[in-house]
Write a structure and sequence with these properties.
The chain contains seven helices and six strands, in the order βαβααβααβαββα. By secondary structure, it is of the alpha/beta class. It has one domain: Flavodoxin domain (Rossmann fold, 3-Layer(aba) Sandwich). Strands 1, 2, 3, 4, 5 and 6 form a six-stranded parallel beta sheet that branches. β4, α6 and β5 form a beta-alpha-beta unit. It is globular.
Length: about 180
């Protein structure tokens, strides 16, 4: 069984990216699962707080889930042409302590998707993740790209993906990512 953890990079309850991950969980290829995770409960990173109290429970739980997974799927919004601060903050927490980066991220296959109300999808945020993923020692998957632009009408009022064409693109993307994980690339 191929296990992937998907992290939604928005705190909004009905975010497009959380909806994208929930749809992805139902579109996984046979023999693969997607565990949808959020950044809920993760505070702003503070090295003094880390030194005094260690990792917050929400960080430790997410970190362990990512470490145990065969792959990681980041569902990123794009804020002001870049990576959302809340998402980067969550990944920064997961890299603490620095000696644990290899256990959590080292060689981990990572794919990035994103949905946005803007006309260019999340192309700049997705590109912005590349230096971060390189620094963490991951294996970014470059064989596919999923940018969902003008996402508003593609999701219902509860944040569920309602567009069949986007569901098909998402399913194809996931099939490619899972196949790459299984062949070690």
């Amino acid at each position: 069984m191929t296990q992937i953890v998907g992290i939604a990079g928005s705190l909004r309850r009905h975010s497009f990216n959380l909806g994208l991950l929930h749809a992805a969980a139902g579109l996984m290829p046979d023999g693969a699962t997607l565990e949808v995770r959020t950044l809920a409960g993760i505070p702003l990173y503070d090295a003094d707080d880390e030194a005094a109290n260690g990792l917050p429970p929400a960080v430790a739980a997410l970190k362990d889930a990512v470490a145990a997974a065969d792959g990681l799927l980041l569902a990123t919004p794009e804020y002001n042409n870049g990576i959302p601060g809340v998402f980067k903050n969550g990944i920064d927490w997961l890299s603490r302590p620095a000696g644990d980066i290899g256990r959590v991220f080292g060689g981990k296959p990572v794919a990035v998707v994103g949905a946005s109300p803007g006309g260019f999808g999340t192309i700049l945020a997705q590109d912005g993740w590349l230096p971060v993923l390189r620094t963490l020692g991951t294996r970014p998957w470059f064989e596919g790209r999923l940018l969902v632009s003008r996402a508003g009408p593609l999701f219902d009022a509860d944040g569920r993906l309602a567009d069949d064409a986007t569901r098909q693109r998402l399913g194809d993307f996931l099939a490619g990512f899972v196949a790459a994980i299984r062949r070690g690339g």
